[in-house]
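task queued by scheduler; priority normal; single chain, no ligands, no partner chains; default sampling; output format set to structure tokens
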Amino acid sequence: MKAMILAAGLGTRLKPFTEKQPKALFPINGKTLLQRNIEYLQNYGFDNVIVNVHHFANQIIEEIKNNNGWGSNVIISDETNEVLETGGGLKKSAHFFKDSNEPFVLMNADMLTDLNIENMLANHTKHNPLATLAVTNRGTSRYFLFDENNILCGWLNEKTGEQKGKFGTKKAFSGIHLISPKIFSLIIEEGKFSMVDLYLRLSTTHTIMAFDHSNGKLIDVGKPESKAIAENLFL
């Protein structure tokens, strides 16, 4: 099965580390975030992976090459010329998924979790939405909003007060998606765009669901102070 890891970001929150290295190579107990997430995906049979790169791209490419993809088939989507954000990055990688009818995983390189993808996939298969988004009830500044049937209906930025779509139950996104390949035929956006905006547009005509894993481990390794917490959670 196939997956994409988003590793093109500048990682500005992780400075000073990211002044000389990409955030995907930030070490947690001797393993980089990238290695940990490739091995995490392997555990659930997702061993064909595409990784998008931009910031210190060559370092990521070399790390993958030197470690033979840590046992997975890993290819690169090169965004050296321009960061395309989450949606644009996925669209650029559409060729990687064109021969598959199976749902694929899209995930952020800087998230670590023990989410059981097998359970998430079973839920996705049962309900057959366009996409399933992993969420928790943790506090954050930006939320996806879901209706009483766990279906995406809006988005909220509590810090700015900005809201899109309808109001619903607030859930914090975990940076992990299960997506049907048919999404590619529905993308009309060009260039740089966000998966959030894509989902909000598509949610008016297609089902996008939540999968709550609030009882599990999850950490956004986005800041240097996250390292100690992550190393305690993921040995």
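post-processing summary
- The chain is about 25% helix and 30% strand.
- The domain at 2-233 is CATH 3.90.550.10 (Spore Coat Polysaccharide Biosynthesis Protein SpsA; Chain A).
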